[in-house]
Amino acid sequence: MTDHVSVLGLGAMGSALADALLKAGYETTVWNRTPGKAGDLVARGAREAGTAGEAVRAGGLVVACLLDHASVHEVFDPLAGELAGRTLVNVTTTSPAQSRELAEWAAKAGIAYLDGGIMAVPHMIGQEGSSILYSGSAEVFETYKPVLDRWGASTYFGEDAGLASLYDLALLAGMYVMFAGFVHGAAMVAPAGVSAREFAAMAKPWLSAMTGGFDGFAEVIDGGDYTVAGQQSLEFSNLNDLVAASADQGISTEVIGMVQTLIRRQIDAGHGAEGFARIFESIRQPA
Ligand SMILES: NC(=O)c1ccc[n+]([C@@H]2O[C@H](COP(=O)([O-])OP(=O)(O)OC[C@H]3O[C@@H](n4cnc5c(N)ncnc54)[C@H](OP(=O)(O)O)[C@@H]3O)[C@@H](O)[C@H]2O)c1
Fold it and tell me: Rounded to the nearest whole angstrom, what is the distance from the C-alpha of residue 269 to the centroid of ligand 1?
């Protein structure tokens, strides 16, 4: 464990992470490429490093919260020698492949590496609802969990450094498709004079209640038997009415049509009597 953490990158997120550490009483060193962003943190007790190397050498855990994969290499490649034998937790957003590449780079340089994906916005850091996903070194996760827990609920997915990022992006994909569904619904009722706010008041409890269906879908998908009794069939929920009503309202049918295409592909392949979870196969095997 450590009582000293260095945070490199003081954008909106890096500043929030450093702030949470200061509040928890950690000795915190901060560095940012462009000077002038550390003022508030220094006022609250942080030490500002003049260079990234100085921040790395300050001792303890090194945390990177930079813009992207390229900026992580730009900052840390020249410091690989200094980082050898130390621990780097990188919460910069990177793709699964980029996270794995960074883990390999770190392993070659003798750096203990943990990759993180932040499921929160800066003001949520350290608050209820903030969740950070990790993968990479189990030892780093276990050792530094008390530090990581200061930012939010910490979940570890395994030694494959790309997994946290994969989960992060999969959860965001789910979120964006749900958001598009909400916006589609709002567009459907708009021509009838219903405001998006009025629609939101109905959509929030409805969509929240519908997440209760995830467990049943997951059981069918994991079981691999889409014929399980008690499911609404794809033929029954072919979405024809929803697509027609959208067209009648004069709006785009792209969002709802996308779901219908996934359903149709399974009906056409002879699986019309099976349940909605079957569209997993349409997604898993691209047309
Ligand atoms: N903000 C969010 O809601 C949120 C949520 C989840 C995850 N994240 C992730 O957290 C990371 C940081 O996000 P942010 O919101 O803090 O972004 P930001 O406010 O735009 O800050 C970006 C940071 O990266 C630094 N940077 C950019 N290119 C650099 C380079 N080549 N070398 C050194 N430093 C460089 C910037 O330094 P300068 O000041 O010198 O430009 C700044 O400190 C991103 O990967 C982001 O995807 C953010």
Answer: 46
